[in-house]
Amino acid sequence: MTPVAFYAPMKAPTHPVPSGDRTMARAILKALDHGGLGWDLVSTLQTRDKAGDTTTQNRLIAAAETEAAQLIARGRRAGWRLWLTYHSYYKVPDLLGPPVAAALGIPYVQIEATRARKRLTGPWAAFAATAEAASDAAAVIFHLTERDAEALHAYAPPGQRILHLRPFLAQEELPQAGPRTGPMLSVGMLRHGDKFASYELIADTLKLLTVPDWRLVIAGDGPALDAVASIMHGFGDRVVLRGSLDAPEMQRAYRAASLLFWPGVNEAFGMTYLEAQAAGLPVVAQDRPGVRDVLPPGPHPAPGDGPAALAAALHHLLTNPAERLARGDAARAHVAARHLLPAASATLCGTIAELIA
Known about the structure:
This protein is an alpha/beta fold.
């Protein structure tokens, strides 16, 4: 018997393109494994509508209705006892879990669901209504950030449990830390929108940096590669774009770096913050919702303070090796205590065990 049916409508854990969303989906499956719960990746249907297009939404709803009928039959054969969906919101609603779970008479659970009732009118109205209905149907919703928790608590139906599952790395121990004497490191997909806004802020900050001989390595790839290369061109060989790195290469990049510099414009929380801190890197980021859920308390500049405050933070760490090491050690201890696999698995699997008992 495979008790848990798992679904990630945003991006399946088997998706070929790396991202924080895929990393977190894979981490959830490892948490289930760690807790001794079998799982079945039941679908790779992506329900994302980025543009608010009614035709796209209707097509995805029809596809989901057909697939749901097949999954109900499959679930009966497999003996699923709980449905678990990761990351559903108004642009990417879970169109499969609620009808399948209802037909099978099993608990429906969500991780990182967000509510946006202002979207119940406008181009995403149909999807927003479906996402709200899915959240209403959940016996338990795990939130990853305090920002998400506010709306979940405000609109929770009677009896629904809202629980905190801290973002976590899919490992039991910390990786080896580096000497923290190399270049600065920025890690993020190279795409337009919020990610590009972070790169623009990085470029504006570097223009103010007075530390001699600073260097920055950027790890990431995507459709905004040329645009990012253009705004970094004036820095010459002090900024190096490494492209997409696999997991071992990424770990080597963390160990070779002195600190992580990623402002975090509109990040949900950012897996790179956890990975960098686990490797002992201090982080220079802005004090933003989501970001503050994965960083230890510290002097993180407010967004309104702009690039000058970020440049001052970088200058302080780059010119104070002892402070850089101390902040990195504190970040590493923070991840060890709160954001590794054992604690996350206990929270997730303990709750699931209660629901399927």
